[in-house]
Design brief:
Largest sheet: 5 strands, antiparallel
Strand content: over 45%
Strand order of the largest sheet: 1-2-9-4-7
Structural class: alpha+beta
Radius of gyration: 15 Å
Number of helices: 2
Number of domains: 1
Protein name: Cupin
CATH superfamily: Jelly Rolls
InterPro entries: RmlC-like_jellyroll (IPR014710), RmlC_Cupin_sf (IPR011051)
Shape: globular
CATH topology: Jelly Rolls
């Protein structure tokens, strides 16, 4: 009667998909390292809930004004629940060993996303912001 799930592989893995909702696990992958983030994503039909399980992860949110993203970043606390409302551009930077649960509408990963590519100046700005946030946590 009890279902049990263990997901150790790198990357994004929806593992419970039910009518109307899904739960996924995002395990660190090189693509989520701050040095590799080159775009933002948005979901138009669902909020997205994030819960850090272990490691260090930084949620990146942005408002795009006149084709320029204005970033807001949040160093995630383990076991704290974070919500990115539908329509908010976002991404997540992770350090090696980090794991995050993600809850959202079912099949969001299949059809409800758009991408916004960052230019080189915005990539560098984001790297500085995230690195500074991670460093301030160490200090």
């Amino acid at each position: 009667m009890v279902e049990e799930f263990t997901i150790n592989e790198e990357g994004y893995h929806p593992f419970i998909i039910k009518k109307g909702w899904q739960l996924a696990k995002l395990n660190y992958t090189k693509e989520q390292h701050i040095s590799q983030i080159t775009q933002l994503d948005v979901h138009l039909k669902t909020d997205e809930i994030f819960v850090a399980i272990t490691g260090k992860a930084v949620l990146i949110a942005a408002e795009i004004i006149e084709n320029e993203p204005k970033f807001e970043i949040e160093l995630m606390k383990v076991n704290q629940i974070y919500n990115i409302p539908k329509g908010v551009w976002h991404n997540i930077a992770m350090e090696e060993g980090s794991e995050v649960f993600i809850a959202e509408k079912a099949d969001t990963h299949v059809s409800d996303f758009e991408h916004f590519p960052l230019d080189n100046d915005k990539i560098e700005e984001l790297r500085i912001l995230v690195s500074s946030e991670l460093q301030s946590e160490i200090d």
